[in-house]
Design goal:
The chain contains eleven helices and 19 strands. With about 400 residues, the chain is of the alpha/beta class. It has two domains: about 90 residues, Urease, subunit C, domain 1, CATH 2.30.40; about 260 residues, Metal-dependent hydrolases (TIM Barrel). Strands 1, 2, 3, 4, 5, 6 and 7 form a seven-stranded mixed β-sheet that branches. Strands 13-16-17-18-19 form a five-stranded parallel β-sheet. A three-stranded parallel β-sheet has the order 8-9-10. Helix 3 links the parallel strand 9 and strand 10. The longest helix is centred in the C-terminal third of the chain and has 20 residues. It starts with a strand and ends in a 36-residue tail after the last helix.
């Protein structure tokens, strides 16, 4: 039986954790499937942010999926398993980042770049920070599909990726070529809609091509004056997305965008709105009643104003912090996301700091290793992690 010793922080992500953190490659059976052969032993296991840690715990990973979690004297380690001796090191569920993009030029050759180079890019932006699950909230679907296909095939190590595909803009609101050049993003066209039928068609095409969700750019600042998506188009897109079993994300930009999203059933706002007024009790009550989740992306506000006076930049971010504080204090659902891939500064430290200023407690990106623990709870930020239930990733 092979035993590997590790140090530092352990982030559980099934076979991905084995490969990245411990250098353990899951053995293959004659049929090419992973054998049930990985046991993480002696860990300080944090099953979820709301449960007491398990000292001297064991986590068994079978064919890339968590098979068992518990105290060492209560979990049977499979015969022939490779043991990873964690020696009291903390072990957490792999983190979620619910707002990423694959739009920087480095992803343009994702289909042909050498595996080591692609994996290096994924490591630099995501894996080094513990993200084993991400939601791509707006990229070219053909490229994201290539990246996740190479990950899913085992060719490269990377996070599990969900994607909204291309952002859907209001007519005349899509970014112009010069915007892509200035931001160093892959140039291309994004769909624009004006009518209900155009919106339904765009949603259907996204889903047919593999999108896991839909993102609407409710009010676009790429146009001057800013242009908003017509209410009937928003309503049609949301209805079509829901009919196809998909969540609909909204980029609000400002108060008008918040109202468009709320009035027409958007599920998630992907930003706070520091350009607008404070989120008052009436707005927060509506958001909570409709079970709308918020991805605050607070570091983005520092990033977008980094060339301005420090007090201006910090004041802009503080507006977003205040909006998050109000929503979290009211028990609103908050998802962790950083907008990396648009931002070239991948370090999430500032996001943690700003969320803490908003009164968030617990690990803002922690999830649960328990099958029966749903994300949620007043004043905490969650993105659900992989479950420890037998047969679940």
């Amino acid at each position: 039986m092979k035993t590997t010793r590790v140090g530092g922080l352990c982030l559980l992500a099934g076979a991905l954790a084995a490969r990245l953190l411990w250098g353990v490659e899951p053995r293959r059976s004659a049929g090419g499937k992973s054998a049930p052969d990985l046991a993480l032993v002696g860990c300080l296991v944090y099953p979820s942010p709301e449960e007491a840690p398990i000292r001297n715990g064991v986590v068994v990973v079978r064919q890339g999926r968590v098979a068992a979690v518990g105290a060492r004297d209560k979990v049977k380690i499979p015969r022939g398993a490779t043991r990873v001796d964690c020696a009291g090191r903390p072990l957490l569920a792999g983190f979620w980042n619910s707002h990423v993009h694959f739009t920087q030029n480095r992803w343009l050759d994702a289909a042909t770049v050498a595996p080591a180079e692609l994996e290096s890019h994924l490591r630099e932006m995501l894996l080094r920070y513990g993200y084993t699950n991400v939601f791509d909230t707006g990229s070219y679907l053909r490229l994201t599909n290539v990246i996740r296909r190479r990950i899913n095939s085992g060719e490269v190590a990377g996070p599990a990726i969900l994607t909204a595909g291309e952002l859907i803009f209001p007519k005349g609101g899509g970014p112009k070529p010069e915007v892509f050049r200035v931001l160093d993003l892959i140039p291309g066209e994004m769909p624009e809609v004006q009518t209900a039928e155009e919106a339904r068609k765009a949603v259907r095409e996204h889903v047919q091509q593999g999108a896991d969700g839909i993102k609407l750019y409710l009010v676009s600042w790429f146009a001057r004056p800013m242009v908003a998506m017509p209410p009937e188009a928003v309503a049609a897109a949301v209805q079509e997305g829901h009919a196809l079993g998909k969540l609909v994300l909204g980029h609000p930009t400002n108060q008008q965008g918040l109202e468009l999203g709320l009035s027409n059933g958007v599920d998630i706002f992907v930003h706070t709105t520091p350009d607008g007024p404070p989120w008052d009790n009436a707005l927060i009550a509506r958001m909570k009643t409709q079970r709308v989740a918020v991805i605050p992306t607070l570091k983005l506000w520092l990033y977008e104003t980094r060339d301005r006076l420090r007090e201006v930049s910090e004041g802009f971010a503080a507006s977003g912090v205040a909006q998050l504080r109000a929503y979290a204090a009211a028990g609103g659902q908050v998802l962790f996301g950083t907008d990396v891939g648009y931002m070239t500064d991948y370090d999430p430290t500032d996001e943690y700091v700003l969320m803490a200023r908003a009164g968030m407690s617990g690990g803002p990106e922690e999830g649960s290793l328990r099958a029966d623990r749903a994300p949620g709870g007043k004043g905490r930020a969650y993105a659900p992690a992989r479950s420890a239930a037998r047969g679940r990733p």
